[in-house]
Amino acid sequence: MKIASANVVPFPVPRVWDALLDPQVLVATIPGCERLAATGEHTYDMTVTAGVAAIKGTYAGTCALSDLEEHRSLVMRLQGAGAPGTIDATVQVRFEEAEAGSTQISYEADAVVGGMVGGVGQRMLTSVSKRMAKEFFDNVGSVIAGGGPEGAASTAPAMPGATAGEPLPGVFTAPPKAARVGSRDDFLRGIAVGAGLVLLGVVAGGIFGRRRW
Amino acid sequence: MTTKLMGTRVQRTEDQRFLRGLGRYADDVAVSPDTLHAAVLRSPHAHARILDIDVDEVLDVEGVHAVWTYDDLAGPMADALPLLIPHPALTHGRTQYALANGEVNHVGEAIAFVVADDRYVAEDAVGRIRVSYDLLPPVVGLDRARAAVDLVHEDVPGNVGARLEQNVGDAPAAIASAPHRLELDLTVERSACTPLEGRGTVARWDADLNRMQVWTSTQTSTGVRAAVAVKLELDLGQVDVITPDVGGGFGVKINHPWPEELLVPMAARALGRTVKFTEDRREHFISSAHERGQVHHVEVGFDDDGRLLGLSVDFWHDHGAYTPYGLIVPIITSTQLLGPYKPQNYRVVFESLYTNTVMVTPYRGAGRPQGCYTMERTMDAIAAYLGKDRTEVRAVNFIQPDEFPFDQGLIFQDGRELEYDSGDYPASLEKIKALIGWDDFPAYQASMAAEGRRVGLGLACYVEGTGVGPYEGAHVHVETTGKVKVATGLTTQGQGHATVFAQLVADELGVRFEDVEVVTGDTRRMPYAVGTFASRAAVMSGSAIHLAAKRTKEKALKIAADALEADPADLQIVDGVVSVKGSPGTSIDLGTLSVLSNPLRYAFDEASKAATQFSVGDPGKPPVAEGEEPGLEGRDFYSPERATFASGMHAVIVETDPLTAEITILKYAVVHDCGHLINPMIVEGQIHGGVAQGIGGALYERMVYDESGQLLNASFMDFLMPYVTEIPDGIAIDHLETPSPLNPLGIKGAGEAGVIPSAAVFASAIEDAERLDRPGMTITAMPISPSELFELRRRAVGEPAETTPEGNPA
Fold first, then answer.
1. pLDDT (0 to 100) of residue B803
2. What angle, rounded to 10 degrees, do the helices at B758-771 and B680-695 form?
C-alpha cells in the first residue's frame, strides 16, 4: 500500500529537523514507543507496544536511514513484526519551508502490511495513518513550543546514564509518562524512527483504530 | 398400497435437529476440559524463505503442551502432502507440506502448530514464535504469473503447472473460412466457497484399542481416513473417520488432507489426549482454497444464422500456490464450456499457472461458471453482431433431442468421454422464455424506458456433468424391530440426504419412511466410498442405496416365501409387512424376517426365541443356506460408465440505476432438468441456494489481493456475501425431466446447477439494460459492482450512442 501526505509544523526547518532527529523527543511523543537502540550508523532497533483490544501487541522493529540531506530529505527503510502483523516499508521524507517560519514535512510511504491487520483492515489504514501522522507532528510542534528537549533531558528517568543500572550507549527508553523530554542527539535520526513508529502504530491500530474507530 | 415417495415433497427429517439447535458439528465433538486445542502460526508473507523459527518463548507459556515445526515432523509426515489427482498434463504439480518446509508461498500457509489447554493459550503461544524470513518477490495475479519475471516455485519455469489442449475438428481453419468472425477477452475474478462452518478436526487416540478416531468437517471421510493412515503409518483398519454435521462445504472440503487433518491426529497420538482444531474465519479465507480466477480469449467463426462453425478458446487458470486437486477445475471449464451447443470445430488450450495466493480447488460449479460465462458471452456477442434475438442464435446451435447420446469428442474430468446421455434443450428454451416473459420483454423495456428506467433481460444456458465415478456403495440393514438402518459412505453438508435416501429405501423395500434411518460419512459403517462433490450424491449413493434396498428386499422375500410357504413372486411388502398378494391374512413383518434371517443358538428376548435352533430350520439343510449370509441386509455398489449430464437455463431481469449504477434484480427464472426428481422441494432448495451463491459471485464477492499478496478482505466485514435482502423474493422455477439412461432411477445431479450460469446471465442482462444509452458497451469482466458499472459507463462516453427510448433488445 502507498501512503502519501504532508503535515505542517509551525517552526522553522532547522528547529524541526533537530527536534525530529532527537530520539528522546520521539520516544516521548509517540504513543507506545518503549525503546530505541542504535545498532550501527543509521540503523536502529525499536520496540513499540500499540493497538487496541484484541489486536494489541508488541512490535519489534528495525529501521535504516539513507540519502540524508540535512534540512531537506531522507529515506527510511523500516521492518517490524509483532503478533498482530508485519510491516516492510520504504518512506521518503521531505522537509520544506512552508509559510514563513514553518515547515512542511511530506512523506511517501510504500508499505507492505502483512498478517492479521494487513489482511483485515488495510482499506482503513491509509486514513488512519494520516490522522496518526498529524497527531504525531502536532505533538512534536508542542514539544518545540514547550522549550525543546534540553530542559527535559535530566528528567528522563530511563535515559541512559540518568538512572541506576547498566546504561547502554545509544539506548533510549520512554519515560513512564509522555513527558516532554529529550536531548540533542543528531546521531539518531529520529524522524525516521518516528515515521516508522507511526506506521507500526498504524499496523496495530488501523483496524479498530486507536481512538474512535 | 404405500404411496411412492419418489417425486414427492417429503419434508426434511434433519430439519428437526437443525432448527432446534441440535445439529452436531466438529466443534461440538469432545466438548470437555480434557480436550486440548490447536492453533496454527501462518505466514504473514506471500513469498518468503524461512531462515529461522524460534519457539523458545512458547515453551515457557503455562498451558502449552507441544509445538511442532517442520523439523519436528518425521516419516511420511515430513513429505509433501499428496497430489490427489495426477494428470499427464500436470507436468509441474506441487503441493505444500503439513508445515512449511523452508519456504512459504502464500499468506496463511501453516508454519507451526501449537497445542495447548485452550485456544486462547494456543493463540497466545503462536504470537510468541519468532520467525525470520528472507522475502521473495510475490507473484500475484495472472498477469504477473504469465509475465514470469518472478517465479513462485523456482523449479517451475514460466510459473506454468500444466498446459492442456484438446481439439475436435480443425477450429482455426473453420474460423478462418467462416463468413463472420469475432474475438472476445473475458475475465472472471477469484471467489471462494465460504461455508459458514469452516474447517474443523478432532482426533482421539485410543491406546487401549490401538486405534485412531477422527471427526472432521470434510466432504470425504474415506479420503481423510486413507490419508491419515498413510501419513501416520497406521493400518487403514486402525483409523475411523466420522463426518458429523457439516455446515456447508461447497467444494472446499473435498480437498484433503488439510495440514490440520494430519497434525491433529498426530498430536493426539503424541500427547495421548483428544485434540481439536477449529479454524476461525480469517484462517478460512487465507488458508483453505479459492476458485474462479480465469482469463479467456475466444475466437469464433459463424454463419449468417449465428451457427458456430469453429470455436477456439485459450484460457489461463490461476491455481494459486499449489495443485493438490490437479487440473479438475480447468478441465471442467474447457469441456463444459460447450454447454448445450455443438460447435462443429473446437479447440481449447489452457495454462494452469502458479501464483503466491491461496490454492485453488473446486468451488460449487467447479470451472463451469467460467465456461458458461465464456460461451454465453460469445453467444450474446454473435447475436449483437448479427442483430438477431439471443434465443435464436442459441437455438440454431442446440444439440437436438434425437441426437443423444451426443459425444462432444472431448475427455471429461473423470477421464471418460464427454458424452451427453440425454436432454431436451429446445424444450428448456421454450420453458424459460415462457417463464421470464421473453417475447413480452421489449414492450416492457420500452415502457420502463419511457419512465426513465433502464431494465435488461439476460439469458444463459448450461450443461453440467454430474454423478461422476468411480463408485459409491450402500448398506441396508433391517433390525429385528423392523427399523431399517442405511449407511452410505459419502458425506452430507446439508443437502437432505437423510430424507431423500430414506425415500428411496421406503419405496424400494416397502417400509415406512419413518422407519428408515440414514448414516453418511462414517467409515465404521461404510468403509468404501469416494465423497460428496460434482453433484454426485443422489446419483451415486442414491443409486447404490436403491440397489442395496433391492437386494435386501429380495432376501426378505426369499425368507418370507419359506416362512409363508408361498412363491416369492406372489409376495409384496407394504409398510414393512410381507404378505401374499390377494391374501392379506397371510403375512409376516420384516422385523420377524430379520429374526429368522439370523439363526440363533441363544435367545435374548421374545423375538430372538423364534430364531433359536429348536424353533426354526429344516433339519435336512444347513441353517444358513449355501451362498447366503445371516442377517436381513443388503449391500451393493453403483459404478457408472460415465457422468450423467443435467442441464438448465436461467433468465434474469435487472434494473440499472441511470445515475448510481445500482443493479437491482426484478425477476429471476430457472428451468432445470436433472432427470427424475426424488424430492422437488429439495431440488428447489438446491436451486435457491445456488442462485443466491451465484448472485454473490456475479455482483458482490471477490478476493481482493494487493500486489504483495495480502488478501485485503479476509473477513465478512469486507467480503460481501449476499444476505437474503440481496436475493430476489421468489425465484420462478420450472422443471423438465429427461431421465438419465445411466442409472436405475433416471436421475441426474442438482447440487451445483444454480450457481453455474450466474455470471453469464447477469452480464447479459446488465449489458441489455445499458444498451439503450450505450449501445456498444460490453461487459467482459465479472463480478461487476455498481462502481465498476459506473466506470464502464464513463469509459463508454464518447462512443457513438444512439439514445432511442423505444430501442428494443436485439
1. 40
2. 60
Across the range A116-130, mean pLDDT stands at 69
d(C-alpha B281, C-alpha A115), whole Å: 14
pLDDT of residue B798: 59
Candidates A33, A58, A56; CA nearest to A179 is A33
Cis peptide upstream of residue B405 (ω within 30 degrees of 0): yes
Length of chain B: 810
Contact B44 A86 (CB under 8 A): yes
Q: Given an 8 Å threshold on Cβ–Cβ distance, is B712 in contact with A122?
A: yes
Q: Does the beta-carbon distance from B282 to A112 stay under 8 Å? A: no
Comparing B141 with A81, which gets the higher pLDDT?
Answer: B141
Rounded to two decimals, the ipTM of the complex is 0.71
Alpha-carbon torsion A42, A48, A52, A57, what sign? positive
Find chain A residues with C-beta within 8 A of B107's C-beta: 114, 119
State which H helix or E strand residue B381 sits in. Answer: helix B368-386
Q: Residue A135 contacts by C-beta under 8 Å, 6 or more apart in sequence?
A: none
The whole-angstrom separation of Cα B117 and Cα B35 is 7
Taking the C-alpha atoms of residue B720 and residue B255, their distance in angstroms, rounded to an integer, is: 24
Could you tell me the three cell numbers for B427? 424444450
pLDDT tens-place string over residues A17-38:
887 777 777 666 665 677 878 7
In this complex, which of B127, B135, B282 lies closest to A119 when CB atoms are compared?
B282
Residue A9: pLDDT above 60? yes
Residue in chain B closest to A110 (alpha carbons) equals B708
Strands (DSSP E) contained in B412-502 are 417-420, 454-466, 472-478, 484-488
